[in-house]
Design brief:
Layout lengths: L6 H7 L3 H9 L5 E8 L5 E9 L1 H7 L3 H4 L4 H4 L7 H12 L3 E7 L11 E10 L3 E8 L1 H5 L1
Antiparallel strand pairs: 1-2, 1-5, 3-4, 4-5
Length: 143
């Protein structure tokens, strides 16, 4: 049984959901799943946080259990205008993954404590999920 239950992962993977989480719990880079919340006409109006690995919890400074089930725009309304939000929505609409470098400066972005240069991989997961893998490349870029 999953210690941090994500009912949408369980629906998508069934009995394989705990194995999915156990494998990604070992990944040293922050990884999390966001689930689309659709508004009228089926458009993506927001995202809800699902499973995230321990590295994500460490990066954002929020325990995994406390971060699940939160709506991004409730937490950070300005995130609607952020290119990351647009990218994740585009990944679901196109069904194609995207990989981009993202520079987050002091106080920029929806997560104020995160700063640096990151490679963000957004990968569609089922019909309404986006698997996000974030690699901190700040030190490599400084060299």
């Amino acid at each position: 049984m999953m210690s941090r239950r994500d009912s949408r992962l369980e629906w998508l993977f069934g009995d394989g959901a705990p194995a999915f989480c156990a494998a990604f719990d070992l990944v040293p880079d922050p990884l999390g799943v966001l689930w689309a919340i659709r508004g009228p006409g089926g458009t993506i109006a927001d995202f809800e946080t699902g499973y995230s690995n321990p590295a994500m919890a460490q990066m954002i400074g929020v325990p995994t259990e406390a971060s699940m089930g939160r709506r991004l725009l409730d937490e950070a309304p300005d995130f609607r205008d952020d290119e990351t939000f647009t990218r994740m929505r585009g990944v679901l609409e196109s069904g194609r993954p995207e990989v981009v470098d993202v520079a987050v400066g002091s106080g920029d972005g929806p997560i104020g404590r995160v700063r640096g240069v990151f490679v963000h991989r957004a990968i569609p997961l089922g019909a309404d999920g986006v698997l996000n893998l974030v690699t901190d490349v700040t030190e490599q870029r400084r060299m």
